[in-house]
Amino acid sequence: MEVSVLNINGQETGRKVTLNEAIFGIEPNDHVLWLDVKQYLAAQRQGTAKTKERSEVSGSTRKLGRQKGGGGARRGDINSPVLVGGGRVFGPKPRNYDFKLNKKVKVLARKSALSYKAQDNGIVVVEDFTLEAPKTKDFINITKNLKVEGKKILVLLPEANKNVYLSARNLQGAEVMPASTLNTYKVLNADVLVIAESSLKAIEAVLIK
Q1: Between the N and C ends of the chain, which has fewer C-beta atoms within 10 Å?
Q2: pTM above 0.85, yes or no
């Protein structure tokens, strides 16, 4: 699949790049996409929810009433879960929600996500660029020139660029990241991928070994 290379003014440079079929032209696998997105979202969870059990609630341990004959449930001390203000039974505890996925599964998921974007014509390739200073206005002008303004965009750069990152940070729906840190969720969440020309080699280096 060939894609025209644009400059940041939205003009064609007269050059074209061929997207690697092994990455952008495979048959997408929906199940591994689901697994990878599920793992990414699970890893974002704080997992800090905590409730007190009866041994942790502040209160006397004196038995409130006789064991039998009261006409109600056995309840022991005032910290019993059957009483208001008592401890909670089997409440949440701090935990890590992340789980392991095989590397091959994650690679296939990223290839599938990129293939979906290629099928939907959701990829724009631009010449490598940088910004002299972090200015949101300059970044907005680039999105206007590329005709992606108002869309969720993911900009993939060959390496981290502080000025470009800071210029896009305050814009809702715009995200900038190095191509080497590409993940399935970010690709699927974006409407358009804006890929710097050199980033294609970085993507190949990560996904084809």
Answers
A1: C
A2: no
Closest of 115, 199, 117 to residue 151, by C-alpha: 117
Contact present, 18 and 98 (Cβ < 8 Å) = no
Bridge partners of 18, per DSSP, are: 2
- Beta carbons of 53 and 91 less than 8 angstroms apart: yes
Distances (CA, A) of 45 to 32, 38, 52, 97, 173: 20, 11, 21, 7, 21
CA dist., res. 99 & res. 45, Å (int): 12
Alpha-carbon distance 18 to 8, whole Å? 20
pLDDT in tens, 21-42: 999 999 999 999 999 999 999 9
